[in-house]
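Suppose a colleague, Dr. K., hands you the sequence of a protein chain of 366 amino acids and asks what its three-dimensional shape might be. Before reaching for any lab equipment, you can write down a predicted structure in token form. Begin with the sequence itself:
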Amino acid sequence: MDKLTKYIIALAVTAAVLFIIWYFSSIVIYILISAVLSVMGRPLMTLLEKLSFKGKTMPTWAAASITLCAIVGLAVLLISLFLPLIIEKLNSLSNYNINHLVSLSSEYITSIETYLSEHFSIDVKMLGDKSLQDSMQEWFSKAVIPTINGIGSLVNGIVDFAIGAFSVTFITFFFLKESSLFNDGVIILFPNRYEENVRRALNSSINLLSRYFIGLLVESTIKLVTVGAAIYMTTGLTFSNSVIIALITAILNVIPYIGPLLGAIIGIIIAITTPEATANMGQIVIHISIILAIFQLIDNIILQPYVYSSSVKAHPLEIFLVILAAGSIAGVMGMLLAIPAYTVLRVFAKEFFNNLRVVQKLTEKI
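The predicted structure, expressed as tokens, is then:
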């Protein structure tokens, strides 16, 4: 068999594998989520396996069961704490009178119109036939209200979520119980002569991604606690509203760079639709903006260099460029998956293409 035939067969097999992955994308997602959870639970699993009682160590299946129970228990705890608050907020948003919000903000909008007119000689009527207040009301009616009303359709995904949760739990147990199961599943996709290279690459990837995901979890937890406490103590918002805003900003914080901005926008929208915003909406907006800006500064200087640089062994500028490229290709989802995917690619490139100078430079810290 000549080289051309081998290349054609290799390309055909690769195309077939990619098609299968695309066709069964939901199952692939379950497997990847389970792999991530097993990576995050590996430290506890290792600790439990080291424990001994009367000279006997804990069976692997027992350690895996306890670790899985800890993961599920943490998820259930978080859901039980935050889901009632989220449902309550969604109900209040779905019944919120947008015209009331516009009337509350009319004073601030009028001040902006006056400021633009006096200091920059800008007539807001020149920007269109409508005033800022009319434009804002129209934007809310066309963009925000349908979005809020569409939230109710998420209820239809409960069955899919239940199936996904069961599938992930089932798969995670076996990934914990048999630590090499995921690796072996990937290795069989490669020729036998590359087995050692692939195994080393997978072990290195798992090590780096484990530190990355744990660092990301710590970063989001710190933001949830600090931002929630600061908003509650300085803005006059209720505890539940403060927690919801902090939770949204902490979740969106996992999306590099654009996530904090989206979280701030959504958080401010939630804040100004609360009853507490009736009397001092401007003050609440200013306080939340300052709190989020201060945390973001701390995050950029202290937390993100550890999560993005120390954990995945890459320069912050390198990470930034990768995120920009991924965002231009696949939008927000691309930005979310950019760092894990880039980490895996770097590790595999080091194993298979280390003779290239650019690969040597990009992987010298791994």
